[in-house]
Amino acid sequence: MANTRTVIEILNSSRQKIAEVKNPYPLTQKGMILRYSHELSDYGQCTFRVSTKDPILSTQGDILIPHQYHIRIKRGTTVVWQGAIVDNKTRNRNYVEVNGAEYEFYLDKKRINQNTTAPTSWDGGTDTGWKNYRNFETGTMSTAVTSIMNQTIAGYGAQHILGGMTLGTIENPDYPNYFLDSADFKLSGAWSFTADVALQFDYHSVKYVLQAFGAYTNADFEITKDLVFNFKKFIGNNRQYDVIFQYGTFGNIVDYDVPRLGKRMTNDLMGIAVDDNGNVLHVSERDSTSINTYGLMEDSTAYTDVKNENILRARLNEELRFIKTPDDSVVNIVLNEKSYPLGQYGIGDIVTVKIKDHVIDFNQPRRIVGITVNLHNTGREMVTIQTNKPREGQYGAA
């Protein structure tokens, strides 16, 4: 991780540069001046401080107002982070703290549109309660995502930064392996909404719905630096054989955290939901290997936006994969300057993490779900990577 110069730019609402923060006020007594992050299917954040006496504030005025001004971080000539100013958490006689969020943040500030006509499943007679929901009962997942995002762009309008967003790649995922039709025959192939595969949401945000779609279909979404929205079966690359993070004398990991979280464990999870006719749905998913190894640990959870057993089963499987063993936890690693340079790995990539440190012996493919960069006033960078266990079927993702 060479000391490539990092630049913090302040942008106007058209994302045009109006100033450069040349001397950030320290975040810590140890000289950290900038922190920025990226998250998979979510928004990353950044934090820096500007001295109240900084010349840019006297020449440009108050250009740190949330939602009116934006941030672009360049590492050399490469844009590594971009988003809106969302907070000034501290403004005192010494500095103004600037807190930014990537543009996925705004997907959590826009509600999805509700139904304009009664869905096929509606059985309420002349009651118009269906207007309080958004049902997905026909069409493909890619059609649903396209519809939601076009409505989001139109709803924000030209005055909002996301009013200029465009749609890029919108892929249609496949059914998960455990989806069944009403006759208990396995569903396969590209995702299509039917009576057996339907979703209903009320006044949820666009981000909530997209993340739910991702959980049900194992898909990912992003907004690029050019404000292009993508919804893909898999964001990232399979790098587990050529990007290896290793702890040891000649390794590139300087610190790590490999927790074992047994208190939250469940290996038999009962899901409860209610369909459109008021029938209570019960589905149980269990992991026999975990039960045989650790003993039975049961739990139950209820969902308001799940209306059929396939979606309920998908929700349970997504949750169970993180809680069925003590080791199914987030693994964080801190890299040293021997590591791969930023840009050689990215969000969504599958890499290998090897840690051999006395009793701790860890060697697994992991998926990068978060990257945080801390910049020191000397130009040195400290990179922390957050990883999850890849979903089933993602080990060979291209």
Describe this structure in words.
This protein is α+β, with helices and mostly antiparallel strands and 398 residues long. The protein has helices at residues 55-60, 141-156, 206-217, 288-294, 309-323; strands at 6-11, 17-21, 32-39, 45-51, 70-75, 78-87, 95-102, 134-136, 166-170, 199-201, 220-223, 228-232, 244-247, 253-257, 268-274, 280-286, 298-302, 331-335, 350-357, 360-376, 381-388. The radius of gyration is 23 Å and the shape is globular. The mean pLDDT is 93. Strand 11 (220-223) and strand 12 form a beta hairpin. Strands 1, 2, 3, 4, 5, 6, 7, 13, 14, 18, 19, 20 and 21 form a 13-stranded mixed beta sheet that branches. The chain starts with 5 loop residues before the first strand and ends in a 10-residue tail after the last strand. The protein folds into 4 domains: 6-106; 110-232, no CATH class; 244-259 and 330-388; 268-323, no CATH class.
Task: Give a quick summary of the entry.
By secondary structure, the chain is α+β, with helices and mostly antiparallel strands. 14% of the residues lie in helices and 34% in strands. The protein is globular and about 70 Å long.
Keywords:
5 helices; alpha+beta; 14% helix; 13-stranded mixed beta sheet; 398 residues; 4 domains; three-stranded mixed beta sheet
SSE inventory with pairings:
Blueprint: E1 6-11, E2 17-21, E3 32-39, E4 45-51, H1 55-60, E5 70-75, E6 78-87, E7 95-102, E8 134-136, H2 141-156, E9 166-170, E10 199-201, H3 206-217, E11 220-223, E12 228-232, E13 244-247, E14 253-257, E15 268-274, E16 280-286, H4 288-294, E17 298-302, H5 309-323, E18 331-335, E19 350-357, E20 360-376, E21 381-388
Parallel strand pairs: 9-12, 13-19, 15-17
Antiparallel strand pairs: 1-2, 1-5, 3-4, 3-20, 4-7, 5-6, 6-7, 8-10, 11-12, 14-18, 15-16, 18-21, 19-20, 20-21
